Predict the structure.
Amino acid sequence: MRHPPTRYGAVAQAFHWIIAALVVSQFVLARLADPLPLGLHKLTLLARHKSFGMTVLMLAVLRLLWRLGHAPPGLPAGMRPVEAWLARATHAAFYVLLFAMPLSGWLMSSAKNYSVSWFDWFTWPDLIAPNERAFELLRGTHDALSKVLFAIAVLHILAALKHHFWNRDGVLLRMLPFTSEKTP
Ligand code: HEM
Ligand code: HEM
């Protein structure tokens, strides 16, 4: 019989940290682009934001497929039921948002008739016909979802730090490469 894993594997860790870095970059790029007047600089930053965002979408598909075949380690035994529920709910919400954020961005760009290229290699097809009302709605959705994602990320990072420094239960270490978690 195979033992359940006690750590995230190298592939799961790579997915986690590459996607986390891309998500953080997305907020930085959007923040830099936001105050700029419409022009080359703004469009270049937004083009990068779109390419990174579509990369997140592709990686989220691969990550989910990988996860179906590779169960994550179980939560530490000492966790209270409410904490375990929160951890599962946060992770599930992340997966939903890793699809919803890029899809709402892609739909928004389609509705405005702005093409979505991937690092100038190729152009993604438009998902819907140009429509100003749909654009405004999708822009509001993208903005609102980004706030939810931000809040969840703050909660997630605080929880990871609490596990590491307060509970000392190895939860952070099992997501980090080149470590071995010590369970007290
Ligand atoms: C994980 C993926 C993504 C994240 C976390 C993200 C996050 C954000 C954030 C925080 C903003 C600023 C919102 C505001 O202040 O109104 C923004 C704006 C924007 N995003 Fe994304 N985004 C993602 C993917 C995408 C994708 C894939 C596209 C297009 C293909 C896209 C297109 C845009 C555009 C065009 C804006 C500017 C909207 C405006 O003019 O107000 N985003 N995004
Ligand atoms: C904002 C970007 C981030 C996203 C989207 C994200 C997403 C996720 C997701 C979806 C999982 C569940 C993995 C699975 O079971 O399939 C996870 C686990 C984890 N994340 Fe993040 N994460 C982010 C940033 C971070 C940061 C900055 C830290 C460290 C401070 C961190 C620490 C962890 C740890 C320790 C786990 C494992 C939890 C466990 O063992 O149950 N994450 N993350």
Remarks:
- The beta strands are 116-118, 122-124.
- The domain at 10-175 is CATH 1.20.950 (Fumarate Reductase Cytochrome B subunit).
- The chain has one domain: 10-175.
- The first strand starts at residue 116 and ends at 118.
